[in-house]
Amino acid sequence: MSAPDREPDRTGEPDETDGSEVARSGSDPGAQADDSGAPGDRDAGADRAPTMLEQMGGVSGLIYSGIPVVVFVLANAMFGLMPAIWIALGSAVAITVARIVRKEPVQPAISGFLGVAIAAFIAYRTGEAKGFFLFGIWTSVVYFSVLMLSVLVRWPLAGVVWNALNGTGMDWRKDKPSRRGYDIATLALAAVFAARFIVQRWLYDEDHTGWLAFAKIAMGYPLYGLALLVVVWAVRRSDRRLKHLRENRERTDAEIEAELRAKYDRPAHDTSARDTSGAVPTGAVSTGAGRAVSDDESSDTPPR
């Protein structure tokens, strides 16, 4: 009698079902994993905080901010004051509209347009081209005064504004090195506005309108960006110190709790050890029933 035919071993053969499932899916599982991770990467990129340059409108924002000033100076030299005012306003409006159409940040453009409008109004009222720069000159004095006052009252504005915008509280004021760093950052910003006032006021008094335009552009965002580097240094320095202080505070609290536990838990363990040892306390008599009776109890017991 012959042995029954054995089924061929198919363990080494590829599974047709699995292959069909992969074929129906239309892609490799690894590729699906990569595709599924792509949205997360895109979301992470979308949630990235804008850089300092991006908040200023990017490189294009820096360029756009100087166009109305240059246009005003050139138009004033060629056509006179009134045409220059209208041409400068027209250029500011065109820049704002262009940024809206291109879906770029419009806040820098709107701020620039308002600044140009105020400067043009002052130039119109004074009847002089250099009046176009008068608003920026006196604005620098106001900013310098506010920043210096904040340092004198020990509320440096760089620290107040930054921590208020980020919701990190005012713990930095309790740490002297952190407050000192924000003092330095605030003084750096104050120095920028002081330099603007000194240079541009002198050029204004000397009637150097062309150099006024150059100074306004050169001492604008470029110089302000240098001061912001000092602010970034102060922020990072303060964040590191506050993090270190919080870690030390938590570690100290844990050490105190451990010492208290070691101090008050040990007697309780010793007492429980004595109770479980079965030793009869001094002055007690062991009865037959297994209960310890004190000397006073035994003396009060009447004789039988």
Architecture blueprint of SSEs:
Layout: H1 16-25, H2 29-46, H3 52-55, H4 58-79, H5 81-101, H6 107-126, H7 134-152, H8 157-166, H9 176-205, H10 209-218, H11 221-276, E1 284-286, E2 292-294, H12 295-300
Antiparallel strand pairs: 1-2
Helix pairs in contact: 4-5, 4-6, 4-10, 5-6, 7-9, 9-10, 9-11
Q: What is the count of DSSP helices, taking H or I runs of 4+ residues?
A: 12
Series of secondary-structure elements, N-terminal to C-terminal: HHHHHHHHHHHEEH
Largest sheet, spatial ordering of strands: 1-2
User: Care to count the β-strands?
Assistant: 2
| SS-based class | mainly alpha
Q: What's the average pLDDT?
A: 73
Regions with little confidence, pLDDT below 50 for 5+ residues: 1-7, 11-46, 283-294
* Strand residue content: under 5%
**Helix amount, in percent?**
over 70%
Could you characterize the architecture of this molecule?
- It comes from Prauserella alba.
- Keywords: Membrane, Transmembrane, Transmembrane helix.
- Residues 295-304 have a biased composition (Acidic residues).
- InterPro entries: UCP010219.
- Residues 1-13, 257-273 have a biased composition (Basic and acidic residues).
- Residues 1-7, 11-46 and 283-294 have low confidence and may be disordered.
- Among the domains are: 56-127; 134-260, no CATH class.
- Strand 1 and strand 2 form a beta hairpin.
- The chain has helices spanning 16-25, 29-46, 52-55, 58-79, 81-101, 107-126, 134-152, 157-166, 176-205, 209-218, 221-276, 295-300, and strands at 284-286, 292-294.
- The chain has a two-stranded antiparallel ribbon.
- The protein is mostly helical and 304 residues long.
- The protein is built from twelve helices and two strands; from the N terminus they run αααααααααααββα.
- Helix 4 (58-79) packs antiparallel against helix 5, helix 4 (58-79) runs antiparallel to helix 10 (209-218) and helix 9 runs antiparallel to helix 11 (221-276).
